[in-house]
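Re: [ENG-882] Designed sequences occasionally contain unexpected residues at chain ends

Forwarding the minimal case from QA. Structure tokens:
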């Protein structure tokens, strides 16, 4: 027989699991976003959307920001949106001036 104590424990565990999942999505993005940003087989518009979502997050390291901006710039370039591509490349240089060529 399920007791009230067990039900309360199950509710607590479910709540903590959901909270942790929301925390991970908020702070690190979903695996799908990360994969879409760096997958060559994903449509350029989807790459832009995924990378933009990750770029907007707080706490992105300079190295990761550098990589995200470069991927988004390449996607913009593929769509002939050169001004946006160059704007992202300018940000890459600002984020990591010593590493902008790679």
């Amino acid at each position: 027989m399920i007791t009230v104590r067990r039900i309360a424990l199950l509710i607590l565990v479910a709540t903590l699991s959901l909270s942790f999942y929301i925390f991970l999505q908020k702070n690190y993005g979903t695996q799908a976003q990360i994969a879409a940003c760096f997958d060559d087989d994903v449509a350029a518009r989807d790459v832009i959307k995924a990378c933009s979502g990750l770029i907007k997050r707080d706490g992105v390291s300079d190295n990761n920001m550098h990589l995200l901006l470069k991927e988004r710039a390449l996607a913009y370039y593929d769509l002939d949106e050169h001004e946006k591509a160059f704007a992202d490349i300018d940000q890459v240089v600002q984020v990591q001036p010593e590493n902008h060529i790679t």
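QA comment: On inspection the terminal residues look reasonable. The domain at 30-99 is CATH 1.25.40 (Serine Threonine Protein Phosphatase 5, Tetratricopeptide repeat). Proposing we downgrade this to a documentation issue.
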